[in-house]
Amino acid sequence: MKLFPKIIGIGVVGFVIALIIAAVAVYCGTKLTAIEDEMTDLLTFRTEVAKAKDAHISWLRTIDLAIIDAKPALSIGTDGTQCGFGKWYYADGKNIVKSMSNEIQQIYNGLAEEHLDVHRLGGELCRKNFRSIYVSMCVRFACGTRRKSP
């Protein structure tokens, strides 16, 4: 009869140990999931910034060609909230960055003004360049430097 309580005691201890192991496994699994989610967010953030960089380099080339060719860049986007990066920045980007470190949040928040300035300056560059071409043409024609018909 003394053997029976020992067997029950060993079974209870084994059950408690199994519960502890299960709890540790669930806790570690939750932490790993959180780390994986953070890594996914960081990768998404990095990917979006890389795509934005490439898109804006292409955008600057459009401005450059428009100036060189002295033709307005009709497709130039001067609203930084409407380009691909701007749309991501003001929507999904905000949600992703909320869970990131303060350092990344500060970098993210600092991008807004700089990004909008790039679009504003790009538009201004095109407007001023084309305005100066228009003014020089008007001056040339108004001053009589244009060949007059006999």
Summarize the structure.
This protein is mainly α and 150 residues long.
Structural account:
α1 packs parallel to α4. The longest helix has 67 residues, at 3-69. The model is unreliable at 145-150 (pLDDT under 50). The protein has helices at residues 3-69, 84-89, 92-98, 102-142. By secondary structure, the protein is an all-alpha fold. The protein has one domain (3-142). The radius of gyration is 32 Å and the shape is rod-shaped.
Reconstruct the topology from this structure.
Blueprint: H1 3-69, H2 84-89, H3 92-98, H4 102-142
Helix pairs in contact: 1-4
Keywords:
150 residues, mainly alpha, 0% strand, rod-shaped
Radius of gyration using CA atoms only: 32 Å
The class by helix and strand makeup works out as mainly alpha
Ends: how far apart?
133 Å
- Find the count of extended strands (DSSP E, 2+ residues): 0
Taken from the alpha-carbon principal axes, the silhouette is: rod-shaped
The major sheet is characterized as:
none
Helices and strands, in N-to-C order? HHHH
Tally of separate helices: 4
Arithmetic mean pLDDT:
77
The fraction of residues in strands falls at: under 5%
Count of the separate structural domains:
1
Helix content: over 70%
> Uncertain regions: pLDDT < 50 for 5+ in a row?
145-150
